[in-house]
Design a protein that fits this description.
The chain is an alpha/beta fold and 303 residues long. The chain is 36% helix and 25% strand. A hairpin with a 2-residue loop joins β11 and β12.
């Protein structure tokens, strides 16, 4: 174990928490490691909504380049930020045990839910699902790392902002003033951490195989396959959640219009043994049920 594994990570508090978690797991297994924090384009450009930047993998691209250039050996990501197609030469090496998949609303009081109000999120998926449920509300854009977004909520007169529970829990930022949005279907792979390595790096891939959680991996693969089949390279309001209970896969996937009015959803329960191509099959069902026309409409509206 002479090689020191250089762990690439974004430099936000949450990203560093994730990288430190991977570092501890590897250290416990006897591997030498070193953290290499970098800033991504997604962290630097905060004055535009993510979908306007037009770059898939905006939070992962910098680390991909660093890995292919030989500056780092592995990279740790929030899996929901990772494009469904990895760059040539980079492979998935481990999906860690998944944390909470829940979205939560951090709020300043809930009276506004019955009338009008403004909530903040940088996610098209969260925006569409919120407007579907609360069509009289306004949704404003919110960018930045978790700490920045919490500060912006405090500084503005918005009634609340939507966060992933896992992110706030990991760095102890989850306040008392929140509610679980158990009706909101999460982003594919929300709550999961992914570690990638170079395909040719047998040493790192072998080390990381020890960190892989098969149940989490099965579920996020179904969700990401659903996303890949629907998206076709376009950012769209897509939610997907696969869970394994009593040897059965429970799957919910949906596609919304940008304004939240239109919704196409699938709900399925199948045996775990039938997981092959599930995400693709369910995405095709959505596409054949009006999703193809809705995706064309979304692409037209975003151009």
């Amino acid at each position: 174990m002479a090689k020191t594994i250089r762990i690439g990570t974004r430099d936000s508090e949450l990203a560093l928490w994730q990288a430190n978690t991977v570092q501890k797991h590897l250290s416990d297994l006897g591997y030498d490691t070193h953290l290499v924090p970098v800033k991504s384009t997604g962290d630097l450009v905060l004055d535009k909504p993510l979908y306007e930047l037009g770059i898939t993998g905006i939070f992962t691209k910098t680390l991909d380049i660093a890995m292919l250039n030989g500056d780092i050996d592995i990279a740790v990501h929030s899996m929901k930020d990772v494009p469904t197609a990895l760059p040539k030469g980079i492979v998935e090496a481990a999906v860690l045990k998944r944390a909470s998949v829940q979205d939560i609303l951090v709020h300043k009081g809930l009276d506004f839910l019955k009338g009008s109000g403004t909530i903040a999120t940088g996610s098209l998926r969260r925006k569409a699902q919120w407007l579907h449920r609360y069509p009289t509300h306004n949704v404003t854009d919110l960018r930045g790392n978790v700490n920045t977004r919490m500060q912006k909520l405090s500084d503005n007169d918005w009634q609340g902002a939507i966060f992933a529970a896992a992110g706030l829990e990991r760095i102890n930022l989850k306040p008392e003033s929140y509610i679980d949005l158990d009706w909101m279907i999460p982003a594919p792979a929300q709550g999961a951490m992914l570690v990638v390595a170079k395909s040719e790096d047998a040493f790192c891939r072998e080390a990381l195989a020890n960190l892989n959680d098969e149940t989490s991996q099965t579920c996020v693969h179904i969700e990401r396959e659903f996303l890949r089949e629907l998206e076709g390279g376009c950012t769209a309001p897509i939610g997907a959640l696969a869970e394994i209970k009593d040897n059965q896969i429970h799957f919910t996937g949906n596609l919304f219009s940008l304004d939240g009015i239109e919704k196409i959803e699938v709900n399925k329960v199948v045996d775990v043994s039938d997981n092959l191509n599930l995400g693709k099959i369910y995405a095709q069902e959505v596409l054949n049920n009006g999703g193809r026309e809705l995706m064309a409409k979304i692409k037209a509206e975003m151009n």
